[in-house]
Amino acid sequence: MRELLHHHFKFFLFCTLAAIGLRLIFIFKFPVLQGDTFVYGDIAKNWLLHGVYGLTNDGVAQATYIRLPGYPTFLAILFKIFGMEHYNSAMFTQVLVDLGTCFVVSALALEITRAQDFAAQDASRAERPALIAFLLTALCPFLANFVATPLTETWAIFFTTLTLYFAVKGLRSLFHGSPGYWKWWLGSGFALGAGLLFRPDTGIVLAMAGAVLLPLLFKFPKRTLVSGLLTLVAVMVMLTPWTVRNWRTMGHFEPLAPRYANDPGEFVSTGFYHWLKTWVVDYISVYNVEWHVDGEKIDMADLPPRACDSQQECAQTETLVDSYNDGLTLSPEIDAQFNELAQQRIRRHPFRYYVWLPALRITDMWLRPRVDMLPLDIDWWRIDDNGWDSWIAIGLGALNLVLILLALIGMLRVWPHHWISAPSLIFALLVGFVVLRSLFLGTLENPEPRYTLECYPVVLAFAGVAFVRKKPLTQG
Predict the structure, then answer these.
(1) Residue 34 has what pLDDT?
(2) How far apart are CA 216 and CA 430, in angstroms?
(3) Cα separation, 440 vs 241, whole angstroms
(4) For the chain (length 476 residues), average pLDDT per consecutive 10?
(5) CA distances in angstroms from 381 to 309, 368, 420, listed in the order given
(6) How many helices (H) and strands (E) does the chain have?
């Protein structure tokens, strides 16, 4: 990568300046400070002012473990330096973090192509994919958009990319017996552990890395065992302080964060979430229904036809919604009735619940225009009502589709021809991570497009690989 930077210094310089400019536009024109931003900020302030990792409740800081410590630690450091609630400093720092992602994606594309025979014959052929991957990442509005909101996405994307890059280097080194192969796996473990301190779903990388290492146990047992153990040890080292704190302070063994972001003894409306999973497939349903609970009314008109299978069920659903709307609180009794309704729907249509709806949620998260953090109407398809907002959203959706198609072309360019080889294992790790994460996201009741962004470094790296030259250049 250093040689690539040296040979194409001007290219990287201009692309980096363009990347900074794009991210500054988002920060100055489209900053988003809401919701979880202030949850993280409250934890950071209480930690600094009262020595309590917790949330303010009736003016008192109460210990919590509903959020992992990575982002509150980041904010606490910045608040200490620049002053309390200085969220601009977080956004400007995230510009640098996202630039780091651009370079790692470029390095990842370089490794993908270098692992191929056609790249080995002419090393310069690996350069163009790496350069294009850097350009695409630098100018990707979907990554740049999240720099302008103090949330975990930018950091989670960076550490996921770094983990995958170290794992790819580790696979090549392990397979070829390089003396320092273990260093890459140790680095991958520490990067993964750091990512887990920001978002718990980063751990999907660990599952995929384990799956890829498993067949190598029979080919290189010692090196594979060392690689796997070092990765696990590094992850455990990163998570141990947080786990011990939760055990001592909260009285629970919790190495990450609770699934529904609840503290011990806090009621969780699992029945309502269960019901949502029987019909929710798109982001607008999350926005119009799920996020209204508690505190806002649910409008039956916002429920699509698939939320009811019959007139009787629609009447039952409306009764439950009215019960909630009366007090704007989802009580355990109402929640239990939502759960019973969900069970009835699942018994009638198990295929829909377990296969069809998850597939639709995955499709929606991958293909929906990523406008959830922009001042655009989320019902972008209503062109007559939204005017230019709709056309901007359609343009972003088209760009998203182009990048995905380029990534698919890139995958076909380096499609593995041997079952157990360095190129095939690298391919399996990267593509398997995207597939496994997508399947996981399909199980959620809140399909938000931002959840696929951690896969985007792989998409952008393969999009760069789409431009590799597989045939030798004719001379003369």
Answers:
(1) 86
(2) 17
(3) 27
(4) 81 96 96 92 96 92 95 97 94 97 96 72 73 96 95 96 96 88 95 96 92 90 94 96 96 93 91 96 92 92 93 94 94 95 96 96 92 80 78 91 96 84 90 96 93 96 88 42
(5) 26, 11, 46
(6) 22, 2
Angle at 257 between CA 263 and CA 230, to 5 degrees: 150
Radius of gyration of the chain (CA): 24
The encoded tokens of residue 152 equal 């975990």
Residue 393 lies in a domain: no
460 touches 108 (CB < 8 A)? no
Q: Is the pTM of this model over 0.90?
A: yes
Q: Which amino acid is at 25?
A: I
What is residue 400's predicted lDDT score, i.e. its pLDDT?
95
| Structure tokens belonging to residue 177 | 């017996």
Answer yes or no: is 287 within a domain: no
Q: Which domain holds residue 250?
A: 2-258
Cα(106)–Cα(100) distance, rounded to whole angstroms? 10
In which element (H, E) is residue 385 found? helix 383-386
Which residues, including other chains, have CB under 8 Å from residue 116's CB and lie 6 or more apart? 414, 423, 468
Q: Look at residues 49, 105, 42 and name the one whose alpha carbon lies nearest to residue 80.
A: 49
Q: What is the pLDDT of residue 7?
A: 81
**Pairing outcome for strands 60-63 and 54-57:** antiparallel
d(CA 335, CA 271): 5
- Residue 470's pLDDT is 61
DSSP string computed for 202-224? GGHHHHHHHHHHGGGGTTSHHHH
Q: Which residues of 388-426 are buried (b: 16+ CB within 10 A; e: fewer)?
A: ebbebbeebbebbeebbebbeebbebbebeeeeebbbbb
Which residues lie closer than 8 Å to 171 by C-beta, 6 or more apart? 212, 422, 425, 426, 429
- Distance between CA atoms of residues 25 and 1, nearest Å: 29
In a domain, 95, yes or no: yes
DSSP string, 49-95: HHS--EEEETTEEEE--SS-SHHHHHHHHHHHHH-TT-HHHHHHHHH
The reply to whether 131 falls in a domain is yes
d(CA 29, CA 374): 10
Number of compact structural domains in the chain: 1
